[in-house]
Amino acid sequence: MATPTKTAAVNWKSLLAIFFNPGEALKEKAVGLAWPVAIVIPGISFALFFLQTGLDLYRTGRMNVWLVVLLAFMGLLYGTVGIMGLAALVWLLTFAGKREVGIGRAISSFAAGYAATLIYSLLGIIFSAILGWRTSVAFGVTGVLWAFRPNMATIKHMTGGKKIYSLFLTTLCGVILLLGWSLLGKINV
Amino acid sequence: MVLIPGFTKAELKENAKYWISYLSFLSFGLVVPFTKSKLSALTFIVSIVLALLLAFLTPFLSTLLLTLLNRPLKEVDALFAYTAVADGMLFMLPFAIMALTARFALGWGAVMPFASTGLTTAMATAGAELAGKGGKGFLNMMIPSLLALVFSTVWILLCGLLP
Prior knowledge:
The complex is a heterodimer. By secondary structure, chain A is mainly alpha-helical. Chain A is built from 10 helices and no strands. In chain A, helix 2 crosses helix 7 and helix 6 (103-112) packs antiparallel against helix 9. The relative contact order of chain A is 0.14. Chain B has one domain. In chain B, helix 1 (9-31) crosses helix 2 (41-69). The termini of chain B are far apart. Chain A binds chain B through residues 13, 16-17, 20-21, 137, 141-142, 145-146, 148-149, 152, 163, 167, 170-171, 174-175, 178-179, 182, and chain B through 87, 90-91, 93-95, 97-98, 101-102, 105-106, 110, 113-114, 116-117, 120-121, 124-125, 138, 141-142, 145.
């Protein structure tokens, strides 16, 4: 008779965990995916995030519809090619290949880390489309920053547990991501 | 080997981690006044004091809470919570550097999302470390995150009220 109670407790905790941290739950499902499939997660996340930025600018009359679509497409490129590049850079700098971590595994782990960003981007686009809110900072920026926690764990694993080196690489990735993001913004606005 | 009289090498290592976290909080305290439309000395001083207050209060309360949550671990290592929080707090650093880059290199105005996410990441990392050492997984994941949520919300609200 003890089993159903225990199962119920586990389910209750799992539901609460998903409620508080849906990205982590999604990441657990995505981490085993092949890299060409996993890369879709940051791709869609950044496309939706850049779309929200475009919609915010469209509402203030600073961007037309075609530029909004172009911005979303650039977000898709940034989320796929950019994140693949970032994962490859970390893979090279950590010599993860020597620890039998393939580049495909590095890309899929990095990409899965953006599951939280995807949740934030989806929520942001819903609030933007239905309520007309300006969501690019509140949902977009916060969502991208949330990806750093799982990515820190991935980087730490790839460095073989070297804490200080993984901190340095995480900071480097963050700064590269910010600079790339800012550069794209300057091209389009 | 004693590097500084009165401190062992291990103690100095743990203390250095805390100094890095204080530096991260201080960075946020320095950046916030530059996001305001007008920079004043009062805003600057209040922001620094607020950041330093949180820098001391956050690890202190987290260590206290995590010690209470994981009493059985005290038999294995008396300073288990202190070490886990010190390790976790290190993870504020990338967010602090990103906030500095965002404000001073890119000219962005919103830096509090960096502080909020950094604080949550740091505390959740401390909780995850204890869960990995045999503590209660669910509570160690949830309670530090909730505490970080409260602290970051208070921080954001107080920064909004700065003169």
